[in-house]
Amino acid sequence: MNHIASAFYQKGKEQPMSQNQYDVVIIGGGISGTALLFLLSRYTDLNSIALIEKYSDIASVNSHGRNNSQTLHCGDIETNYTLEKALTVQFSANMLTRYAIQFSDTNKVLHKYPKMVLGVGKKECDVLRERFKIFSPHYPGMKLLEREDIAKVEPKVVDGRTEEIVALGVLDEYTAVNFQAAADSFVDNARKAEGKNINVMLNTRVDKIEKANGSYQIRTDKGSIAARFVVVSAGGHSLLFAQSLGYGHEYACLPMAGSFYFTPQLLNGKVYTVQNDKLPFAAIHGDPDILVDGKTRFGPTALALPVLERYNLKTIPEFFKVFSFDKGVMKTIGGLLGVRDIRNYMAKNVLFEIPLIRRRLFLKDAQKIVPSMKLTDLSFAKGFGGIRPIMIDKANTKLHLGEAKINPGTGIIFNMTPSPGATSCLANGEKDMRSIVEHLGCQLDEAKLDQELK
Predict the structure, then answer these.
(1) What does 153-190 look like in DSSP terms, one character per residue?
(2) CA–CA distance, 176 with 112 (Å, rounded to integer)
């Protein structure tokens, strides 16, 4: 078996691998893959774990701050969540918060901003008032904000507005996350595990996964390694690997790209809007950008693009492999376009990408949050925005909008999309960790996990 010259996580340091057989190999160095690496290194008795990332940095694709909304989703202001779903999301968010406070430089990972979901007009205001009655007992920090209360927190939201408004707000909690910093921290802490071989291989592309002799052979551009268990957390590429092994052919991948716009600092915190329950896409919101000082970022738009990574045209051929257009895909897309709200939304988001007209069109949507916003305030956030791989359930001809995971029970797991995104990295990683523990018969320190993260 070949030895791989592995690029260890310390940037610029390379040395030959000490072994080619691992207990677990994780493919994908984003927030999900690195969270699992940390969990396995700290809470199990597994001795050898490797993580493979094709790029030179950890979390450089969708987990990078420029490619997501940097939001800690807690279920309190996401109006498309039922209470049951919201409490599950709250638990996931609390795990990440507890981790960041205990194991990282908290100020690099977590950020405090006021946040609110804004209701505009009587219908939306009634929805939020009723929601407050149901949700506030479970969210002690939640406040019902009337117009004058909103004005104290976000004056630009009120200025120049005549419609009835109300908001559900959380004013003194962690609300934003630098997910790349969190992923870096996961790797740093995993490598501190005593008596364990934790190998992080950067600049290493996985070409093929094969099952042989009771383990998996992972063939890369630098050689081959073997693993007793494999977890693929590589977005849309996870489905590509799954289908190469005969799994997941009931799914197709529809990559949805989100773009953003910058303004001067018009908001002090995060302002979300009420979700249209007919649309399976995120409602527009405004956020302070933790990477760009003095700017508010508005978005996202939502546009289906034939790539698995934003701004990476080399992933076009890979898209066509996992899109796998057939009758099920055609019926699903036809059903979506048959809904007027979805059809109009998708058409508008195509126009949002056309340079000569996109600012003017987006301005109208953004003015729902800041009525006094001017066209000159808006600039397209070039190079910002990622891809969310949405799964199409071909057999049932519908979008699979929640967590997308394929676990055939054969010692390999494929994660396409966590729900509600990066916030659930530790909760999703715990599920995978438990599957690994059951399959390999290793030990899990439940007491330590509960004490530290729950």
Answers:
(1) H-HHHHTT--S-EEEEEE-SSEEEE-HHHHHHHHHHHH
(2) 7
Sorted by sequence, the CB contacts under 8 Å of residue 189 that are 6+ apart come out as 38, 41, 42, 103, 104
CA-to-CA distance for 263 and 318, rounded, in angstroms?
35
Among residues 234, 236, 241, 247, the alpha carbon closest in space to that of 33 is found at 234
Cβ atoms of 154 and 273 closer than 8 Å: no
Q: DSSP letters of 437-452? A: HHHHT--B-HHHHHHH
Kindly report the number of other CB atoms within 10 A of residue 85's CB atom.
15
Cα 74 from Cα 76, distance rounded (Å): 6
Domain layout of the chain by residue ranges: 5-62+179-250+402-453
**CA–CA distance from 140 to each of 70, 118, 133, 147, 454 (Å)?**
23, 19, 12, 21, 18
Tokens matching residue 6: 């592995």
Alpha-carbon distance of 327 to 329, in angstroms, equals 6
What does pLDDT average to in each consecutive run of 10 residues of the chain (454 residues)? Answer: 40 48 97 98 97 96 92 94 95 97 96 98 97 97 98 97 97 97 98 95 97 92 96 96 96 93 97 87 91 95 93 95 92 89 87 88 96 96 92 90 89 88 94 98 98 96
The sign one gets for the Cα dihedral 227, 223, 55, 207 is negative
The pTM assigned to this predicted structure is 0.93
- 248 phi-psi bin (left φ>0, alpha ψ -120 to 50, beta other): left
Helices (H), 104-168: 106-109, 122-135, 147-153, 155-158
Q: Which secondary-structure segment (H or E) carries 319?
A: helix 316-323
Class level of CATH domain 5-62+179-250+402-453: alpha beta
